[in-house]
Write a structure and sequence with these properties.
Blueprint (H helix, E strand, L loop, with lengths): L3 H30 L6 H4 L1 E5 L26 E5 L4 H5 L10 H11 L2
């Protein structure tokens, strides 16, 4: 049996891997669930560590950005700053139900 420090380090790494797994699942679900006309809103789900993203981008945040994530870096965020994302989530598109963001997050968290 390992030392207490070894056990704690192993537990910490397991938690970090779980955080990354959930973030990757949620990100995939959000991108998939976002209604697409121009693709701008779907492309603007940005994964960041420590604080939410500021502004918009042309391409979605990369799950590769999470490589080497540690708890010390802070929370992981999936942010969308498209000016109309709230209207989409409220049901303005026939391509996705109202509340698709919440549904996608729940699905991403529930994935193994």
């Amino acid at each position: 049996m390992g030392s207490r420090a070894d056990v704690m380090a192993g537990l910490r790494r397991a938690v970090e891997e779980a955080v990354v797994g959930v973030a990757v699942n949620v990100q995939a679900e959000l991108v998939e669930a976002t209604p697409v006309d121009t693709g701008f809103a779907a492309a603007n789900w940005q994964l960041t560590i420590g604080e939410p993203a500021d502004g918009t981008v042309d391409l979605s945040g990369s799950v590769a950005d999470l490589a080497g994530y540690t708890i010390d870096q802070g929370s992981v965020f999936s942010t969308n700053n498209a000016s109309y994302i709230q209207r989409l989530n409220a049901g303005s598109s026939t391509q996705a139900p109202a509340g698709f963001v919440e549904l996608a997050i729940a699905a991403g968290v529930a994935e193994p």
